[in-house]
Batch of 4 targets.
Target 1
Amino acid sequence: MAKTKILFIAHEMSPFLELTKIAKITRQLPQAMQEKGFEIRILMPRFGNINERRNRLHEVIRLSGMNIVINENDNPLIIKVASLPTARMQVYFLDNEEYFQRKQVFRDAKEKFFDDNDERMIFFCKGAIETVKKLGWMPDVVHCMGWMSSLVPMYLKTAYREDPMFKNTKVVYSVYENCFTENLDKNLKTKALTPDMNATDAALLKDSSCSSLHISAINYSDAVIKADENIEASVLKFLNKQTDKLIIEKTDHETFDFDNFVQFYDEVSVDLVTT
């Protein structure tokens, strides 16, 4: 029987970048699943404060060279990779000079939220999907963690829904507490569209808030993880109405040996086969 393939998409992972609790779970969960027989891949942005020499990143020439279109502008995508020898895992990093090669992550030296964080998110989400296509690796499950990966569920269920690479892929979203109080660019719901989408596909992004990102991701996901006890009230209210989705609670999320996740992914995979 073929191994279930899980793609993890997150904006942080220990030891490369540690901003929130997401970094720890992104480091532990993929390794645990690999040790339990799943085949995994991990994608994250290559932020400028990730030391390439220390972490031994190197460019994957065969994957680089694509352009990601945002607002009718072509943005080159560079793919780099690093290994975690103790875990026998490879992590793919998505890089772009304009969006990611700056010393700070989401705020400047004066703590001002970057004006282009919306475009950086769009670039990362589109780029992640295109990278997997170029890898030729067909995931059974795509597990998105946190707000910067929140557009991936929407893209997979709209623009890529008929793509042979993702036609049968199930999407899992881990929802955390809001990481910012500012709104992203007011034109996010328009910028995020692709030629294969229509305005209603991005309707839940209407106020460009962190909460709206979570709500949109939950709406387009097949399964959801309540990964935080401080989920914003409107997000939690929307999530609690999703009676048709598989949901895992935070208390299970922190189980040491991750056995609960084996069952969780198996349920998603069974649903994949039977739907």
Target 2
Amino acid sequence: MLMLLFLILIQKILIMFINTLKIEEYLSTLPQSILSGEEIQIPPDTIREIFRFTNLGKNDVFYHLGCGDGTSLSIAREEFNVKNAIGIDNSEKMINIAKKMINEKNISDIKVIEQDILKAEFNDASVILCWFMDPEILEKMIEKFKKLKNDTKIITIWAPLPGCVPQKVDFPYIMNETPFNETDDLKKQLMAVFDTECIGFVTAWEYAERYTKSIGRDNPENDRFLVIIQALTIWINAKNLGVACGDEIPDSIRSYIAILKEYFGIEVEHLLK
């Protein structure tokens, strides 16, 4: 699905040809399903890494919000022996694919539900995998998560829950546990995720590569474009929060800002405050 995202990006660039858009204007032209994460399936090996990171086991009731084709549920039951695995997704198509897989494998104690996650109930959960890039969804979900029993694990990818300092990080996998360690300090959040006193270009690039590798892609040669976008996002956020290493913009950052503008028609420099 990341290949789909990349192709959409290239298509949009070709249509715009020589026009330059600010990155937020550019992203607004993409399908909402891509931006929200609905069209992206987490690769099986990444799912296994997340489960090992979470210490998922036989006493857990596992929920995947936005479960897609149900691969995570199958792995949770068959390989990690969870007590129950429940998937919720608002796509009838994906739920039908998941049901077919469950029936063909004859897996017990597994269930999929076609439902909007904002209306879903998951009070019996001990571990929840929730990867949604839409900030409005996350803001609404955080209130539901706060009502869960103590020690419930919420696993996200790339970013922690809004207003929360994570209990455990193996980037890009991030764990928050109830009751949440809440904060309004974005700098504190950022430093908890990256576990360093300051963020330089090398750190931003390393973490961007980790993220790109973890979410998988159909065409690895397109990784460089994705890493550039992610690395610049990390570094610019760090700079604006005052936790970038040094006061000056590194030459490497300037070079990649120029590459995005010249070759892809995407302008990000205005994000620097």
Target 3
Amino acid sequence: MGRSSAKLPFTKMEGCGNDYVYVDAITQPFPLDRASELAQEWSDRNFGIGADGLIVLARDAAANLQMLMWNADGSRGAMCGNGLRCLARFAEANGHTDSREFLVMTDSGPRAVALLDAGRGSGDVRTQMGDVHCGPKRLVEVLGDSYEFICGDAGNPHAVTFVEDLDAAPVERIGAAMQTHPEFPGGVNVEFVQAVGSNRIRQRTFERGSGETLACGTGAAVAALAARQVGNIDGHHAYVELRGGTLLVIGEGPSLAIEGPARSVFHGEVELST
């Protein structure tokens, strides 16, 4: 007998242009064993839905809301600030919470989220990022050139370098090379950052597993902390300008939060062979 198929509802969402396909695995069956394969298929911007990856809403063994994440290349992601903000709105829109503030379990631990306005399915969200850490500056040789990086962690690894001209930064070339660098055996998210004013920076990110994206929430948190470390930020708040919008980073570290938009783009159904 041939394989049968079923239609699986999904929602495309974005936070500052960082976009994911969202699937509700609480109210419908979803083959988690195929998630890596489906993330690659659906993320394709020419032959799929088009996204930076796949995020599945589930419940853990204790019935807590849970975020399961796969990057566009099918690799697992541990944490995504923009993805988590959108997941909070997705959970609200699908009727899984009536609270304005609640916890979501991630592979990096529990994260508190707060829905800041009444827009059901879309609106601003504050996400607690947990403890974010940055190390000292270090020189790393990449493709024959030396770059000064501040390496940090926000539930996933980051390397931040400061540049004079962000628009001319070799994001794709250096970011891709860093994914196979011996100093980062598991790959790394690479942030190129330019200071543009008091408590304001611009950022571009090459995300491991996805390439350059329009925004990176965990990257914004690490970049803000690194900018504070080198004296570019001295206030309690920092504005991080990304290619897809602006995020507000709150706190002086190590505990940080980010605020920004989460928007439902469209709903659809995809045929899933069974």
Target 4
Amino acid sequence: MLQANVDGDLKKFIIELRNVCRSKFGYTVFKDFLVLVACAISNAVDKNHYKEREELYLNTVKNYERQEVEEMAALFAKLTLLMQKCSEAGFLDDVLGTVYTQGKFYSAHLSQFFTPYHIANFMAKIHTSDLKNNEAYQKYGLLKVSEPTCGSGIMVLQLCQELREEGINYQNSVFVEAWDVDMVCSLMAYIQFALYGIPAIVVHGNSITQERYSIWYTPRLFMTDFVTKLRIREQIELITAILNQEKEEIIVKNTALPMFSQSQKNNIKIEELTLF
């Protein structure tokens, strides 16, 4: 379900994506489309992973004819315009998640269940006041949001939409760390966060075991001073943790920041909102 009045554009997009390569399984085409788009976005800003992304791009694109690749490129442009229409209408709609489900590109054996819009919107409204009154936000001017099972990113999208309606510019004050064990889901979230201008790190990996298969940084993260803000915040919290040694246990939280060495192994407690 989309809030913006773009049903016609959405249906046309689904049909055109299905027609890209009829000889291939719909799930495969959708996944490959996400890979090509995600690599194109990533390689524009993240030079540390350029070689890795370029190899992934070439290994994917070789399975398609030139005309099919050009059609996918055109669909990327149409996706960007579709999401721009949603944003201009005041909504951060879950466009790719809707395409995935309504277009039935999913694989039945995965048994995936996505959070309905009305549930995501309800939970976002509940958490919005908590975020605005968050102690860390008052101190650092930065809201850190953790999504351990992000799916297509609908929870984060609704949260940012609610913040914008409350007068908080999520593009300058919210940092998102989102995880999903499924590659398709993590790429849907990454692309949508990137195109809506959400500063985020999206991890394709297991948030329980902390095993990371790939890490994706949205362009907005490089356009602001988020890395500096997070470094300062972690250093302050480290010092605070050291000064509060009377606490028996301090929770470890590693943030995979761009151009960071591996996060310090020191035990650091970071207050954050966790979305479920």
